[in-house]
């Protein structure tokens, strides 16, 4: 049966301070691997973003979108589908957001300043998107030690993150157990920040994904198959 591979967690040098490869190079790599598409999930303006921290909202969003727009142009040239997403920061946790467009971002100037994650998720859902907590059990020097697992408000959990070192795979195992316990869908993502990290944790869908709405439906219904380093998960 034909499957359609997608990368759901990817950063670009143009928009994420922690990324090391340009959007066009990432697109070329995934196209060469036979993927149908990728979602560019650069850090949002309230996280590790290259967008200016102090500037008019439009200027900040323009900066945030630089990587996505570069990837989209490259994707149009080679035939790889490129969708917009982002990684939203809240109280030490990261939340992958899917299914929305540029207009949503320009229209919500308060988006980076919300006091309640539930308010953010509600806004996203009302606009037709979904929210997935990324790497819910990761610990790192840049993260507070008491990051909460917000299974109670999100649509799904990232249960496999390709950037985790072999010795840290218990983070993923705990995320998978949490998702199963609360009957939440799980996704995989490479969390690729450079060419060396591509295709380390991806999704294989049974039907083609053409739009953000298609992706949201597939995530919510748990239709994708999780792949890690080309092996079933």
From TrEMBL:
Position of the signal peptide: none
Domain of life where this protein originates: Bacteria
InterPro entries: PHP_dom, PHP_domain, Pol/histidinol_Pase-like
Positions of the PHP domain: 7-91
GO MF assignments: 5'-3' DNA exonuclease activity; 5'-3' RNA exonuclease activity
Stated name of the protein: PHP domain-containing protein
Organism in which the protein naturally occurs: Candidatus Avichristensenella intestinipullorum
């Amino acid at each position: 049966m034909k499957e359609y591979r997608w990368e759901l967690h990817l950063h670009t040098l143009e928009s994420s301070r922690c990324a090391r490869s340009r959007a066009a190079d990432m697109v070329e790599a995934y196209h060469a691997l036979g993927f149908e598409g990728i979602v560019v999930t650069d850090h949002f303006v309230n996280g590790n973003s290259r967008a200016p921290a102090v500037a008019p909202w439009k200027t900040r969003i323009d900066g945030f979108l630089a990587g996505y727009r570069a990837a989209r142009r490259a994707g149009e040239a080679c035939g790889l589908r490129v969708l917009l997403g982002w990684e939203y920061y809240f109280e030490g946790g990261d939340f992958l957001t899917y299914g929305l467009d540029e207009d949503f971002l320009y229209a919500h100037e308060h988006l980076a300043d919300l006091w309640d994650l539930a308010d953010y998720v509600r806004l996203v859902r009302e606009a037709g998107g979904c929210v997935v907590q990324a790497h819910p059990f990761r610990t790192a020097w840049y993260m507070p030690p008491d990051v909460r697992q917000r299974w109670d408000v999100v649509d799904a959990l990232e249960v496999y993150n390709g950037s985790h070192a072999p010795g840290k795979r218990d983070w993923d195992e705990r995320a998978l157990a949490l998702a199963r316990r609360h009957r939440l869908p799980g996704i995989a993502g490479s969390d690729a920040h450079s060419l060396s990290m591509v295709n380390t944790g991806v999704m294989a869908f049974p039907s083609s994904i053409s739009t953000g709405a298609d992706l949201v439906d597939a995530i919510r219904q748990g239709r994708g198959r999780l792949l890690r380093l080309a092996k079933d998960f």
